[in-house]
Structures are given as C-alpha cells and as structure tokens.
Amino acid sequence: MIRRYNQDFTTYWLIKSRGKIVGRVRLISKGNGCYRISPIFILPSEQGKGIAQKLLNY
Question: CATH number of the domain at 2-57, out of 1.20.120.530, 3.40.630.30, 3.40.50.150, 3.40.50.300?
Fold first, then answer.
C-alpha cells in the first residue's frame, strides 16, 4: 500500500459529500492525459447515493 501511495504516477483523492469525507479514489496516470481509476472506495453508509457516479461524470 505504501509503495503504491509513493508512486510518481499515482494520485489519491478524498471524496467529500456535504462537507464530510465519504470515500477515496486512486488515479493512475497512463500518460497523454489518460487516467485509470483503481480503486474507488465509498463508505458503506454512503453507498447507493450516486456519489461514485457523480465522481465519474466529473
């Protein structure tokens, strides 16, 4: 986990909803402005509310 966190091509973002942290996403740069998401986590209490879908649309 620490090795992945320290990779130059990896960025982690916290996901907030209504001012509260509800999840986390890891973006992996593939170059040329392309990214891969791996993984995305949403707290169980916040799942089913469309939060991940809004993130992907963003």
Answer: 3.40.630.30
